[in-house]
Amino acid sequence: MSGTSTAQGRFIVIEGVDGAGKGVQSRLLRTALERCGFKVLLTREPGGSPGAEEIRNLLVRGAADKWDSMTELLLVYAARRSHVEQTIKPALAQGTWVISDRFADSSRAFQGIAGGLGLETVERIHQQVVGDFMPELTLVLDLDAATSLARTKARGGNEDRFEKKGESYQSRVRDGFRLLAARSPTTHALIDAAGSIDEVAQSLRQTVATRLQLPALLQVTAADLA
Ligand code: TMP
Predict the structure, then answer these.
(1) What is the domain count for the chain?
(2) 122-140 burial, b for 16+ CB within 10 Å, e for fewer?
(3) For residue 52, which of 82, 174, 199, 208 is within the disulfide window of CB 3.0 to 4.6 Å?
(4) Residue nearest to atom 7 of ligand 1 (CA)
(5) Which tens digits make up the pLDDT trace of 20-72?
(6) Is pTM, for the whole model, over 0.90?
(7) How far apart are the CA of 1 and the centre of ligand 1, in A?
(8) What's the gap in Å between 57 CA and the centre of ligand 1?
(9) Looking at ligand 1, which residue's alpha carbon is closest to its atom 2?
């Protein structure tokens, strides 16, 4: 194939509070898009490149007060810079679609809104580090803080630094995501994440097909991932 004719891939982000189901839903969406014939890269933040995964480890483990919100913001943007430049942009340039489990809206919701830095501060750093590069579609999985925290507790593991900030912090994160979705209705969709895995997956597929003007995406169920 002559490299010049390769169409750019499309960039989709899945956001939401911890425990909203982003992990399983991004895998199901990847499979649905692959069944339509697209090449898809599934990636995540913080992380998604070797250097950014190292920064992730600093962020997600340890005591809740290990970093203040500004230090978190600087760490996530250092990681994001590496992720965008080394992973996302090269994939899109090759025609690969990219689904990222979290991106800049997480910094807006966690550090900007729940952490109290304000959206303007996040935006200034965002412009310096990432510029105008942004996802074509952001899918926000919406779930109340009590349910989402119960799900993350049941899951266990030691990547729980943000969960340790407590229910009122998580509840501000949720409000933050809802605000971000409401203020940009053309690029964002709010998806009710309280249903079963397969119900939420169907709603995501329908939204992606409508917003990105694709033919209906083939059904993929949780059993397909087993
Ligand atoms: P994950 O559990 O969804 O992989 O995300 C790890 C944590 O990182 C999650 O609790 C939210 C946090 N985070 C931020 O606070 N700001 C950010 O910009 C990103 C990408 C994640």
Answers:
(1) 1
(2) beebbeebbeeeebebbbb
(3) 82
(4) 60
(5) 999 999 999 999 999 999 999 999 999 999 999 999 999 999 999 999 999 99
(6) yes
(7) 38
(8) 11
(9) 18
Nearest to 191 by CA among 179, 206, 204: 204
User: Which CATH number characterizes residue 112's domain?
Assistant: 3.40.50.300
| Residue 221 in domain | no
Nearest atom, ligand 1, residue 161 CA: 10
Instruction: Residue 204: give the domain boundaries.
Output: 3-213
Burial (CB < 10 A; 0-12, 13-18, 19+), residue 81, is middle
Using the atom order of ligand 1, give the atom closest to the CA of residue 115: 15
Tens-digit pLDDT profile for residues 97-127: 999 999 999 999 999 999 999 999 999 999 9
